[in-house]
Design a protein that fits this description.
Rossmann fold; about 450 residues; alpha+beta; four-stranded parallel β-sheet; 3 domains
C-alpha cells in the first residue's frame, strides 16, 4: 500500500491531492495545525496529523514532521503552502533521508519568490515581461540612528547579477527607513524611458516583491498618484516594483509543469482564467484548460533556464497591444486551481508518486482542452457579488450542471469537506494566527 503525507489541510489544492491519490487507493495522511480544516473532513483522508504552527514554532514543526515520517513511513511528502515549503526546503537533506521529496533547493525558491529577481532573470533570458522600474527609490532615515548603511547591492548566485539591497530591505521591515516622496518623483522622471511609447496611459501596477495572490497589489491610473500609492505599499511590502499595467482583453494564463531532478519536463498544462476574485486580478474562480503553444514554450524555457526541479506554476498575461504573453510571476509550489489539471488528465500528484516509486512514464504534455473547474464556495460567489456585469457573465454564473466543469470542493462522492471549509471560517473569529495570516497578506 502506497502512503503519502500532505501538509496544509486548509487549502483547496490540498483537497485536490487528497482526493486524487485517495481515489487510487493511496493512504493519504494530512497535516495541519488545527482540526478545523477542509481536508480533514474528506473520506480519503486516512490519517490526521496535528503539528505545531510552522510560523510560530518552526523548529517544533520540523521535529514533529520528522518524528511522524520515522514512525509512520511514507513514500512521498507533499508540502503545499509557502511557509511549510520554505521550512521543509531548509531541512531538505535530513527529510530526504526518510522519504521522497521533489522540490527545488531553498535558494532557488527564495530567488523566484522575489519578483524583482524573477523579472530581471526572465528578461535576461528572452522571456517577455511588463515594463518594470527595478531600482528602489533613494532611502532616508526616519529614526535618530546615524549608523544606517548606504545601499548595498548583493550578488545572486542563480544568474550572477546584482539584485535588491538586502540590508536596507531588512531594516525597512523594522521601520527604520522610509521613501522620500520627492525621490519617487525624481526616479519616475528619470526613468520615463521605461514606460515610453505612451503606455503609461494604461496606468501602473505597484507590486510587492514577495506576496501571494493579489495581496498588496495596487493599481494606479494617474502618474501623479504614484508617489502616495508607492509610499503606502512600501510601508508594508518594502521596495515594491512599479510596472506598466497590461490591459485586459486577451486573458491571463497559468502554465503548470513538473520537472524531475535533472530538470527534464515530466508533465505540463496550460489553463486560462475566466473569472477571478478580486475581479481586476487575483486567484481564479473559474478557469479552463486550453492549448497555447507560445505560453507552453515560454514556460518551459523559463523553468529550464532556472534548472527547475519539482512543481511550479508560471503566470502570464497576454498584452492585447502586441499579442505577446508577459510574465507575471512564478509560484514555486502547488497552485489553487490544481483540481483542473487533475480533471483534465494531468494528475501532477499521482505522477510525483510514480516518480517516488521509481516508475517510468512518458512526459504528459497532451490533454483534452475545454474542461473547466470552479471555486464556487466562496470565490465565484464573491466574484458575482463584486462584478457590476454579474448578470452578463460568460459563461453564466448560474450554469451549475455542466459535465465538462468540476468544482474545487463540492463533490457528491466526497461531500463533507464543504463543512470543513465552512468550519475554517470560524477559526478567524478566535484564532490570532488565522487573523495574522490575513494581515500578512
Amino acid at each position: 500500500m502506497n502512503r503519502v503525507l500532505v501538509t496544509d489541510g486548509h487549502f483547496r489544492k490540498t483537497l485536490a491531492v487528497v482526493r486524487s491519490l485517495g481515489r487510487k487507493g493511496v493512504e493519504v495522511a494530512v497535516g495541519e495545525r488545527t482540526y478545523l480544516n477542509t481536508s480533514f473532513f474528506s473520506k480519503y483522508c486516512s490519517r490526521r496529523l496535528i503539528y505545531p504552527s510552522p510560523r510560530r514554532y518552526p523548529d517544533r514543526f520540523i521535529e514533529c514532521l520528522l518524528a511522524e515520517i520515522k514512525k509512520n513511513p511514507i513514500d512521498c511528502l507533499f508540502p503545499m503552502e509557502e511557509e511549510t515549503l520554505l521550512l521543509i526546503a531548509k531541512y531538505r537533506s535530513e527529510i530526504s533521508k526518510h522519504t521522497y521529496l521533489l522540490i527545488p533547493d531553498l535558494e532557488k525558491i527564495e530567488f523566484v519568490r522575489d519578483k524583482g529577481n524573477l523579472i530581471r532573470f526572465a528578461e535576461a533570458h528572452g522571456i517577455p515581461v511588463p515594463k518594470t522600474l527595478y531600482s528602489p527609490p533613494t532611502l532616508t532615515s526616519v529614526s535618530s540612528r546615524t549608523d544606517l548603511p548606504h545601499e548595498r547591492l548583493c550578488h545572486n548566485s542563480v544568474h550572477g547579477s546584482r539584485t535588491s539591497p538586502r540590508t536596507e530591505y531588512g531594516m525597512l521591515k523594522n521601520n527604520h527607513l522610509a521613501v522620500r516622496p520627492e525621490h519617487v518623483e525624481g526616479r519616475m522622471a528619470n526613468d520615463d524611458t521605461v514606460f515610453e511609447g505612451g503606455r503609461e496611459k494604461e496606468g501602473y501596477v505597484i507590486k510587492p516583491r514577495i506576496s501571494s495572490g493579489s495581496f498588496g497589489i495596487v493599481y494606479v491610473k494617474k502618474k501623479e498618484d504614484l508617489v502616495s500609492s508607492y509610499q503606502s505599499v512600501h510601508q508594508r511590502y518594502p521596495f515594491p516594483l512599479i510596472q506598466e499595467y497590461i490591459p485586459d482583453g486577451e486573458g491571463t494564463f497559468g502554465f503548470s509543469a513538473l520537472f524531475d531532478e535533472s530538470s527534464s519536463v515530466k508533465a505540463a498544462f496550460v489553463h486560462k482564467k475566466l473569472r477571478m476574485y478580486p475581479v481586476q486580478g487575483g486567484p481564479s474562480t473559474l478557469r479552463e484548460g486550453v492549448e497555447h503553444p507560445q505560453i507552453m514554450e515560454l514556460g518551459l524555457s523559463l523553468l529550464k533556464a532556472l534548472n527547475w526541479a519539482g512543481i511550479a506554476m508560471v503566470e502570464f498575461k497576454v498584452d492585447p497591444r502586441d499579442g505577446i504573453p508577459k510574465l507575471m510571476e512564478i509560484n514555486p509550489r502547488f497552485w489553487g486551481s490544481l483540481q483542473l489539471a487533475i480533471f483534465s488528465g494531468v494528475d501532477f500528484p499521482y505522477l510525483i508518486l510514480k516518480m517516488a516509486k521509481g516508475e517510468k512514464f512518458e512526459p504528459v504534455l497532451q490533454y483534452p482542452i475545454g474542461k473547466r473547474s470552479r471555486w464556487f464556495l466562496f470565490g465565484d460567489i464573491l466574484h458575482f457579488v463584486d462584478n457590476p456585469r454579474r448578470f452578463r457573465l460568460h459563461p453564466s454564473f448560474f450554469r451549475f450542471f455542466d459535465r465538462e466543469t468540476c468544482d474545487d470542493m463540492i463533490s457528491k462522492d466526497d461531500p463533507l469537506p464543504v463543512l470543513g471549509a465552512m468550519a475554517t471560517f470560524f477559526t478567524f473569529l478566535y484564532d490570532p494566527e488565522m487573523k495574522r495570516f490575513l494581515e500578512r497578506r
